[in-house]
Design the sequence.
């Protein structure tokens, strides 16, 4: 990345100057991003990265300018799930920004994995290095104007989500859980983490809520269902929806061919589209285009991605 010293270049005065310069770069970068969404979970294995990747793809598919930032530094899966090829192109000058990978016209992606020569190499970093990497993901990258920045965090409440909370003001959390009691116990910790660090929670998603048979498209509850909605109700949070398990999602993720955001006919994809719409309504992109759409509907505008609080109780 750039030559930012991150607390390791010379005198205390030089370190303070470098830190101030980076703070200014972070402020400039974030000033061009309208909505920041942190996708997090209390435990691993709940499909958090799948939700993050498909959320970014779905928002981009709806015409929004989207960035996807993978801060799961020890297990970065975003690049593989999107089957992205490419390497980091060094900037032309010391002060120039680094271009993220361009997945499509509307979607830019940054992950530590595409900056590594060997993608199977383990990242063995302590907290300060991880914190600095996340700060540089914001300060050194040419995100440009974005409607949404979707951030995929590792499970738990450690350095990475804490760094995002401290680096990105006004970030909102989407918390992913599965219905079983172990996952729900951990998601309560994530909710309390957000309250402690003053991160607003956009809502809760219940993933793996039932199993979709690939033959008949019927749904069978394996881990029960309704747990995520119950937790949301207990904490007075928005429940964004439940997404059933579908073997095709697993295959698509392994093959780097997104599924939830592209196959509109499956039960899982339909459920996910409702989740995306709920997030879009609660976090509408601001600007003249959205205002015009709201005015044209003659109603609350929820179907067009905007929401008039005077006409809608959503």
Sequence:
């Amino acid at each position: 990345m750039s030559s930012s010293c991150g607390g390791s270049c010379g005198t205390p005065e030089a370190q303070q100057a470098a830190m101030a310069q980076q703070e200014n770069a972070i402020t400039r970068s974030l000033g061009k991003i309208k909505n920041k969404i942190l996708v997090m979970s209390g435990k691993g294995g709940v499909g958090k990265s799948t939700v993050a990747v498909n959320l970014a793809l779905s928002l981009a598919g709806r015409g929004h300018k989207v960035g996807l930032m993978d801060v799961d530094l020890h297990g970065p899966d975003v690049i593989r799930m999107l089957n992205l090829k490419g390497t980091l192109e060094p900037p032309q000058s010391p002060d120039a920004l680094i271009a993220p990978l361009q997945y499509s016209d509307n979607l830019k992606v940054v992950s530590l994995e595409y900056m590594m020569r060997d993608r199977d190499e383990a990242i063995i970093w302590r907290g300060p290095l991880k914190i600095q990497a996340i700060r540089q993901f914001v300060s050194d990258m040419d995100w440009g104007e974005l409607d949404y920045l979707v951030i995929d965090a590792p499970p738990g409440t450690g350095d990475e989500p804490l760094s995002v909370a401290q680096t990105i003001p006004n970030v909102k959390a989407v918390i992913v859980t599965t219905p079983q009691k172990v996952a729900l116990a951990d998601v309560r910790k994530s909710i309390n983490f957000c309250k402690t660090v003053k991160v607003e929670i956009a809502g809760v998603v219940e993933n793996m809520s039932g199993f979709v048979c690939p033959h008949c498209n019927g749904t069978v509850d394996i881990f029960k269902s309704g747990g995520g909605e119950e937790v949301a109700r207990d904490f007075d949070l928005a429940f964004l929806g439940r997404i059933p398990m579908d073997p095709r999602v697993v295959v698509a993720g392994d093959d780097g061919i997104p599924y939830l955001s592209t196959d509109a006919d499956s039960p899982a994809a339909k459920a996910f589209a409702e989740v995306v719409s709920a997030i879009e309504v609660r976090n509408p992109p601001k600007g003249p285009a959205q205002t015009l759409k709201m005015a044209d509907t003659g109603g609350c505008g929820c179907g067009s991605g905007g929401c008039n609080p005077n006409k809608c109780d959503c």
